[in-house]
């Protein structure tokens, strides 16, 4: 049985079901609170407004991440936007089935990072994951080895700045999965669809951009 069976599968179902019940109401309150502000919230304000929202990847995207990591067999997976750790479970489960590799995740909100750590411990995957709390552009600037798979699933306006920080660490052929395609800034898509990557949209969940680092 793979790591997506048994207690990991049961935990994923529970977390995804909980998010489906809770997130719509949480996000409705967050949008209402943001509408009353004189300017759109920045990343830290948005993180606080959405502190109780799991905002998970679609299960289809999660399975794709698992398949991708099993296939690529990366030594290091990096995640921008860990939230409650649902996507992290898919990534770490694949690494455990590979028998090698680690995940370095980043999460701006300390409470979400604590929840993610608890969920990873419940899944039996905590030993494969390091969650760095704070600004991803700072926290992910120092990595132990080249990155084989990168998941971007945080504040969309930060995708390009975070990617630029990580590009020197991306090994040739590294895979970049950028979630929530309809929300991605045009300048980010222009970057990954230009020189330096081979990139295309995939119809998974709300849509993802799948990019492979050239070289």
Automatic annotation (TrEMBL):
GO terms for biological process: methylation. GO terms for molecular function: methyltransferase activity. InterPro entries: SAM-dependent_MTases_sf (IPR029063), SAM_O-MeTrfase (IPR002935). Pfam families: Methyltransf_24 (PF13578). It is an enzyme of class 2 (transferase). Keywords: Methyltransferase, S-adenosyl-L-methionine, Transferase. Its EC number is 2.1.1.-. This is O-methyltransferase.
């Amino acid at each position: 049985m793979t790591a997506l069976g048994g207690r990991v599968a049961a935990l994923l179902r529970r977390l995804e079901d909980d998010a489906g019940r809770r997130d719509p109401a949480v996000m409705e309150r967050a949008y209402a609170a943001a509408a009353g502000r004189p300017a759109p919230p920045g990343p830290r304000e948005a993180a606080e407004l959405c502190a109780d929202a799991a905002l998970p990847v679609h299960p289809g995207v999660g399975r794709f991440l698992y398949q991708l990591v099993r296939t690529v067999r990366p030594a290091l997976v990096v995640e921008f936007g860990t939230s409650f750790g649902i996507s992290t479970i898919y990534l770490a489960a694949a690494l455990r089935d590979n028998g090698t590799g680690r995940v370095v995740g980043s999460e701006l909100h300390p409470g979400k990072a604590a929840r993610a750590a608890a969920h990873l411990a419940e899944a039996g995957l905590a030993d494969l994951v390091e969650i760095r709390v704070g600004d991803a552009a700072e926290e992910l600037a120092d990595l132990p080895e080249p990155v084989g798979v990168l998941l971007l699933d945080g504040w969309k306006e930060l995708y390009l700045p975070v990617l630029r920080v990580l590009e020197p660490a991306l090994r040739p052929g590294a895979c970049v999965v950028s979630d929530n395609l309809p929300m991605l800034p045009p300048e980010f898509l222009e970057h990954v669809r230009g020189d330096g990557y081979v990139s295309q949209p995939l119809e998974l969940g709300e849509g993802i951009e799948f990019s492979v680092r050239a070289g």
